Amino acid sequence: MKIISADFVKGVVGPDKALNTPRPQLAFIGRSNVGKSTIINALTGQKKLVKTSASPGRTREINLFLINESIYLIDLPGYGYAKLPREMKDQIERLINWYLFLSDYQQKKIFLIIDAKVGPTKDDLEMLMALEDRNKEIVIIANKIDKVKSSEKDKQVKKIKDLMNGHKIILCSGKNNIGISELIKEIF
After folding, report:
1. Beta-carbon-side half-sphere exposure of residue 24 (alpha carbons within 13 Å)
2. Distance between CA atoms of 68 and 34, rounded to whole angstroms?
3. Distance CA 91, CA 31 (A)
4. How far is CA 139 from CA 10, 26, 166, 180, 181, in A?
5. pLDDT digits 0-9 by tens, 69-90
6. CB count, 10 Å around CB of 21?
7. What is the DSSP pairing of strand 71-75 with strand 62-67?
8. Less CB within 10 Å around the terminal CB: N or C of the chain?
9. pTM for this one?
10. What's the first-to-final CA gap in the chain, in angstroms?
11. Which H/E stretch holds residue 160?
12. What are the two backbone dihedrals, phi and then psi, of residue 12, each rounded to the nearest 5 degrees?
């Protein structure tokens, strides 16, 4: 299938009627500045659908995007490192926790985005365990694969696979459209 339309619906910070929908919800989660917004832009073929920033912590709401008038892509704020006041970090963590684990909203899949060059961090592994504990369907996106030196790629991919508990891993570069067609197949 192909993405033919993608529209920003709204940003939410709690229960909202926009989330009360029979449309499948596909959530994108990852550390701050791992490239969630860039991945969504690459998927939709729109460079400015989602605002990107070099500064970690830019996304502070749950952003809903309607795809092909049939599914929602959910762009969650990043967890972990961000130069934000402690109170704001705590607020973002509570928002992520509420949507993924406490609300009644069901996600068809969770796309956990990690930095391919850095590999899974402690925060990534904690998120993975929390998602697994709640039996979420998880696909790992190893973004920024283009930044891994070719001489180190096999070793880095093996390291990622060894830590991801057998979940499907898609090697991606949202910036260079690597792995995007494989990712689209996971959405539909």
Report:
1. 12
2. 25
3. 15
4. 25, 11, 10, 13, 14
5. 999 999 999 987 667 778 888 8
6. 14
7. antiparallel
8. N
9. 0.92
10. 7
11. helix 150-163
12. -130, 155
